[in-house]
Write a structure and sequence with these properties.
The protein contains five helices and 18 strands. With 235 residues, the chain is an alpha+beta fold. The model has no long low-confidence stretch (mean pLDDT 97).
Amino acid sequence: MRDFYAFEQHVRTARQKRGLEMDPDWYELPVFYFSNPYAVCGPDDDVAMPPGCAELDYELEVAAVVGVSGADLDPDEAQRSIAGYCVMNDWSARDIQRREMKLSMGPVKGKDFATSLGPVFVTPDELEDTRRDRSYNLAMTATVNGVEYSRASLADIYWSFGEMLAYASRGTRVETGDVIGSGTCGTGCILERSLVHGVDRYPWLQAGDVVELSVERLGTLRNTVTAGEALRPLR
């Protein structure tokens, strides 16, 4: 499982609020991190808050699933190797993530506790009539307890899935069943919304919250947040 960082609006907003300009390398390198395949959950599954987390967030994404294995693919080859797409929620423990990444590593425990996928798997031919430039013109929305938090289009993506998958395969292999996450769309998480409008308007998730991520043609991925285990010290 690889999760990318492919929507410019999301990256730009997060960096601006930290007083940073866009890094020119972002337009040259479709960067990603490896997520945890053992923490995948499906539609309507409960998602427990990770130990020690007080700032739980969702991330509204689309995932592509590799259908044909390969190595050192070019973008066109990579695009043709995609078997289909589904909605993805890259759950994030922002307070844990913030501490880890100050140490120049990660995301680590801030990300690897849950990734939701579903509710259906849609093949590329079913989406071809929505093709726009490097992606598909599909509306993406997120609600928390029925209140809309996020709205964007998959067509806003900067890096195509073919380009991301080609980069993933550079100098190595991608295998059938590998998952390629798009990264968060513009407005697609509480972190981004709270940076602009404040945490009082967009509070962090709590036990009992129902998060619904919807992508046109791909359905609605619904999960309920539950209380997690207490944090146990390492020493």
